[in-house]
């Protein structure tokens, strides 16, 4: 989308690059029925994982991003696990999953520690004391090596879905 | 920040699953007993609305929490008093 002015530039991010290890973490992972602590390494033990960092539940980018991923049907087979992560609470995730009928599980990280580990913290202007991850997507293989990484450099910015699809196809 | 960069979870090792509701005193009682016996357990937090707790219904045939599923003994059980008695009997000192 072309706008007649500059959007906010977030600057460079020191995030894990393709070929580097994806930092492990453990957080409540929310389904439409319950949540429990799950580590990224628990998920990669079953194969590749697409980890999608998204703005808090209720924001329009959250809805856009998950609508697109759902439409593309990523992770509907056995070969890839798709999970999201935002700072929203497990209760908000449960409602989001139910209302959007999302076929995905979402990590809850209200204190934003995972974004710190991944170098993608975004301090929100006009929301004092609130930070969340930049929109980002990491395709991670079964050895927890990053195969593809995309991190927003502007606010707002949306993932390059076709590039992610190509990376999934290359797995 | 409390996590390390190594494998963070012991989920795979837990043999007891506790279905619980946040701030439910009966659930806390069971969790306390599990901790007292130093048992590794995985908590699954469920929906406050009783009618929507289908995950609990599937494993236990009813929707009340707490419920434990003990893979070691094959026992699935509800009601905190019964669960605590079961834990005392199974894992307590003779």
From TrEMBL, chain A:
Pfam families: AhpC-TSA (PF00578). Residues 16-171 form the Thioredoxin domain. It comes from the Archaea. Transmembrane segments: none annotated. SUPFAM superfamilies: Thioredoxin-like. Keywords: Redox-active center. The keyword Endoplasmic reticulum does not apply. GO terms for molecular function: antioxidant activity; oxidoreductase activity. This is Alkyl hydroperoxide reductase/ Thiol specific antioxidant/ Mal allergen. It comes from Halorhabdus utahensis (strain DSM 12940 / JCM 11049 / AX-2).
């Amino acid at each position: 989308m072309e706008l007649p002015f500059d959007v906010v530039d977030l600057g460079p991010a020191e995030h894990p690059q393709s070929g580097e290890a994806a930092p492990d973490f453990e957080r409540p992972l929310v389904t439409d029925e319950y949540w429990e602590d799950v580590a990224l390494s628990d998920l990669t033990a079953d194969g590749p994982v697409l980890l999608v960092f998204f703005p808090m539940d209720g924001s329009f980018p959250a809805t856009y991003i998950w609508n697109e991923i759902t439409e593309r049907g990523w992770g509907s087979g056995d070969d890839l696990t798709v999970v999201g992560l935002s700072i929203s609470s497990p209760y908000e995730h449960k409602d989001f999953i139910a209302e959007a009928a999302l076929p995905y599980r979402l990590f809850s990280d209200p204190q934003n520690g995972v974004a710190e580990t991944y170098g993608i913290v975004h301090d929100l202007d006009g929301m004092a004391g609130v930070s969340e991850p930049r929109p980002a997507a990491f395709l991670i293989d079964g050895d927890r090596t990053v195969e593809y990484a995309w991190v927003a450099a502007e606010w707002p910015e949306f993932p390059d879905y076709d590039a992610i699809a190509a990376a999934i196809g290359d797995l | 920040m409390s996590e390390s960069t190594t494998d963070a979870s012991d989920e795979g090792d837990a043999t007891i699953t506790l279905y619980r509701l946040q701030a439910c005193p009966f659930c806390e009682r069971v969790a306390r007993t599990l901790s007292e016996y130093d048992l590794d357990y995985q908590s699954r937090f469920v929906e406050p609305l009783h009618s929507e707790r289908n995950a609990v219904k599937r494993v236990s045939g009813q929707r009340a929490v707490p419920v434990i599923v003990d893979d070691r003994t094959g026992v699935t059980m509800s009601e905190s008093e019964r669960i605590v008695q079961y834990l005392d009997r199974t894992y307590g000192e003779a």
